[in-house]
Amino acid sequence: MKAVPTVQIDNDRVVVTEWRFAPGADTGHHVHGHDYVVVPMTTGVLRLDEPEGMRDVQLTAGVSYTKLAGVSHNVINANDYEFVFIEIELK
């Protein structure tokens, strides 16, 4: 099952996407082409399948984080409930 992205804004400076993950849903493997900020709307665990292996990360609603372009992973909802975050890509 795939996570559902909804692009809210896409202009010359940013792309803002809402990501909704049903339990067990994933993004599919991808590489980030831009620096980005994630704003979790849900508290829970996301599983990251990265080149170095699998790891779980605990996210808290409203507590943002940022990463640089080049991150390579598949993001999987490890919870038994829907998980939602907003991703802001900086062009």
Strand order of the largest sheet: 1-2-9-4-7
The total tally of domains equals 1
Alpha plus pi helix count: 0
The class by helix and strand makeup works out as: mainly beta
Spatial shape: globular
Briefly say what this structure is.
The protein has 91 residues and is an all-beta fold.
Descriptive account of the structure:
By secondary structure, this protein is mainly beta. The chain has strands spanning 4-10, 14-21, 30-31, 35-40, 44-50, 53-59, 65-67, 72-77, 83-90. It has a five-stranded antiparallel sheet, with no helix packed on it. The chain has a four-stranded antiparallel sheet with strand order 3-8-5-6, with no helix packed on it. It is globular, with a radius of gyration of 12 Å. The N and C termini lie far apart (29 Å).
Summarize the topology.
Layout: E1 4-10, E2 14-21, E3 30-31, E4 35-40, E5 44-50, E6 53-59, E7 65-67, E8 72-77, E9 83-90
Antiparallel strand pairs: 1-2, 2-9, 3-8, 4-7, 4-9, 5-6, 5-8
Question: Keyphrases for this structure?
Answer:
91 residues; Jelly Rolls; four-stranded antiparallel beta sheet; globular
